[in-house]
Amino acid sequence: MPRDLEQEREKDDKSPPITLTESPNRMASGSPISPTTNEPLLPTPSRNFTIIPPDQQVHIGAPTNLHPYTRPLTISDLESCVALENAAFTNPDERASREKFAYRLSKCGELCLGIFCTVDSKTDFKAETLATGKPIETSRKNGAISVLLGHVVAVKTNDPLATDGSMDYPKDWDSAHPQPSTLGHQEGGRTIVIHSVAILPGFQERGLGQTLTKAYAQQMSGAGIADKLALIAHDHKTQWYEKLGFVNKGKSKAQFGGGGWFDMVK
């Protein structure tokens, strides 16, 4: 289920929104990565990216710009997603399991988005996902790696709201002959159910959650693959999502993590 980013609220109200840098070739040290001789740069993602405002830069011993960027998640990001989820959710009952991540990243990774930064592998950069970071695919001599800071993980459903069924998964999904199931991702569904919105604890209160959620909503809307977004949130956490355009539909029937949720739709 979505991680609440309530503590970002005051920061978001006072500061300009964080935006995104152009590509993984910008490092958290604030300077571009230098490619080796005759080595091409990584392809630049969609150019809806700019640089983080100075007042929202992360400090790691000295002023440092994160230069965050987003990209779709794949099964290769599994361990980073698990590490992020475990760090972001203090209540184990509200965490997605490793098995659920494997299922969602394999079946519908195009519905899952991560926000990353690129750092030198020898830096003192602190993040629970540092150990699971992946080298950027241009063989940099400095060993620069891409580190996951936050993620949005989702599936599609035929239902208009988030349900326990959409938050589950068929246990035989990776077998040679899986049985038809109404659990989990429904490819023909027109509602995207967001199951996890999470930012590493050390990077909260910087507007990253707002930036990631807005980027996700814009990308899904632009792709035209669904009619709406749905999620569940606790009562004291609904206002954060309302500021991002979600509407509170009242108490949810979902009992995930013990229940007590409210349905949110955008």
Automatic annotation (TrEMBL):
SUPFAM superfamilies: Acyl-CoA N-acyltransferases (Nat). GO terms for cellular component: cytoplasm. GO terms for molecular function: aralkylamine N-acetyltransferase activity. Keywords: Acyltransferase, Transferase. It holds the Pfam family Acetyltransf_10. The keyword Acyltransferase applies. Residues 68-266 form the N-acetyltransferase domain. Residues 1-49 are annotated as: Disordered. Residues 1-15 have a biased composition (Basic and acidic residues). Residues 18-49 have a biased composition (Polar residues). PROSITE patterns: GNAT. PANTHER family: SEROTONIN N-ACETYLTRANSFERASE (PTHR10908:SF0). This is Polyamine N-acetyltransferase 1. It comes from Lachnellula arida. The lineage of its organism: Eukaryota, Fungi, Dikarya, Ascomycota, Pezizomycotina.
